[in-house]
Amino acid sequence: MSTANVASAPTSSARSSREAAGPPRERILAAARDLFYRHGIHAVGVDAIAEAAATNKMTLYRHFASKDLLIAECLRRLAAEFDATWDENAKAYAGDPSAQLLAWLRHLGEFKLNLAERGCAFINATAELPDKDHPARRVIEEHKGLHREKIIALCREAGLSDPELLADELFLLCEGARVSVQSVGREGPAKRLIDMLQGLITSHTKPRHKSGSRGAPLRRGR
Length: 222
Known about the structure:
By secondary structure, this protein is an all-alpha fold. It has helices at residues 12-19, 24-39, 46-52, 57-63, 67-92, 97-109, 121-128, 135-157, 163-184, 193-203. The chain has two domains: 12-63, Homeodomain-like (Arc Repressor Mutant, subunit A); 69-203, Tetracycline Repressor, domain 2 (Orthogonal Bundle). The chain has ten helices and no strands. The longest helix has 26 residues, at 67-92. The protein is elongated. The relative contact order is 0.11.
């Protein structure tokens, strides 16, 4: 991997702020996540990360044996934050899977659709790390797989027809929308995402077979 430094030297005030932000390991993770997302994994070297974290390479390697393991831990932290948001949504709509599904999809549909964003950090990392055995790829695949399973379970609990198919449709639409924003802008197809998601849900509330029962109607979230 390239070790080119893309980050400019932080100012003394920036260094002081980071030094007060927590222990070295946490500063390194925060700096790496920011730099990897803004500039790309290959464009950021450990020198730039150490400098942005107000530390040095020796300390960085004391906490992370390699850049690859640092990348994996950054994505693992991001996945944990994603899971925490899911859990908060589940608690807010406990006992009402239809409302929980709608609220979650609205949350995904309102993902910072602005051109300053560089899209999904997981998708970006996958594009930069073609080696299937890279430790970060395993984190990404586990995270995306578990998220898909959660959506399937929620669709099933909501009484929607063909929950596996619906979950995959919703999953692929959300994944594609984040990529679309980067290529054609927020005024492109992604601006219709919430309407398209709702349309998919509506289509799965109708019986797909004559013998099938009508799925429970979805209610808007609180």
